[in-house]
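Box S1 | Example of a co-folding query
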Amino acid sequence: MQRQCFICGGRDLECLFVNTWVLPGLDLKEIGFSICRNCGSVCQSPTVTFDEMMHFYSSMAVYTNPGRREKPSESKIRDLDEQIQFIKRGVGSLPSSALQIGSSDGYTLSRFKQAGVTRVLGVEPGEASVRLAKKLYNIDCINDSAENFTTTETFELVILTHVLEHLYAPQTVLNKCRHIQDPLPEGFIYVEVPLFASPDSLCPGFFSFEHINYYTRANLFKSLLDTGYYPVSTVEHYNSNLAPVIGVLASTKPQHHTEEFSSEYENNSKKVQKYRQQEVAYWQQKLDEILPTLQQAKNVYLWGAGIHTCQLVANTNLLEKVHITGLTDTSELKWGLKQGNWHCVPPEAIEWQPGDAVLISSYASEKEIFDALQWLRDKKIKTLCLHRIDNTKTN
Ligand SMILES: [Zn+2]
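Box S1 (continued) | Returned holo structure for zinc ion
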């Protein structure tokens, strides 16, 4: 499916690169990344249809890690400490009510409530997350998507953290938020998204399947201004999370602190091409370093039905060099899912032989997965990490 520009609505998109992806639960898909010739925004196009994406989310997405026993990660706690202070400083006081779109397990809203926000409400498409929010934090949520939910209530603060980059029509959702705040003399919105910063700041796999829109500071400001929000505070972090992030607090009260928008076509086009070259070289080099070990193994299994497996296959010559016996994952949701030629099975269902190898290709959870596989190493199974980073920044 070809998309229109998510910022300006332009139809003149130029494809910068495209790959065939073996996505879990879906047939082979052509996934590409394109730039708008009008405003220079980068988005995923061609992409899958909205329905296919929803199917992917419902069969795959696990937003809370069972390994942490439903507790927020340290980095999540830290991020919320900062968010609350940042919003308080930008607004001048703590808002009295908050609506979070994409409220996940309810942790964020529980923190705002704890800080003194008297009325909080979530909007969350995942039924399991809605139940979890109620059970863990007594947070109420509308069980619906950002696109479909309605409310007659008004909220002083609307929170959208790591939501806009997933939406097929983010501007429509921002417009809806703005209308929810129409009755107020002044309302605020806090948006946070991955930041399409300079190529050297971006992690492998930055152009991912779930992220269909790519924001720079300039087009994020534009997206807010175009929907009647005026940025008043900004924060950018390049090292604190896996990918750079930007957070913007904006007010419904007209004010003009930001520079006028001009097309980012030239600059963004160069950025994507440089990043892409570096990324392809990176994946292959990482694989080349462990290839001899993989080729000596009796059976090789890939760990994790997901995007990282998809990227590993798309960005390297793994399948030409090594016979892959199968795919395994500890998540029950993924058992039976077909990805490429493999059906994902529980690790206990495999008859492991000494000399077998497992390849871990997740960037975000590499260490967590590796640490949990001591039982395999005890059976003389090699557990190989592709990225070999000690990363504790994941959310
Ligand atoms: Zn555009």
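The longest strand covers residues 13-21. Residues 268-385 form a domain with the Rossmann fold fold (CATH 3.40.50).
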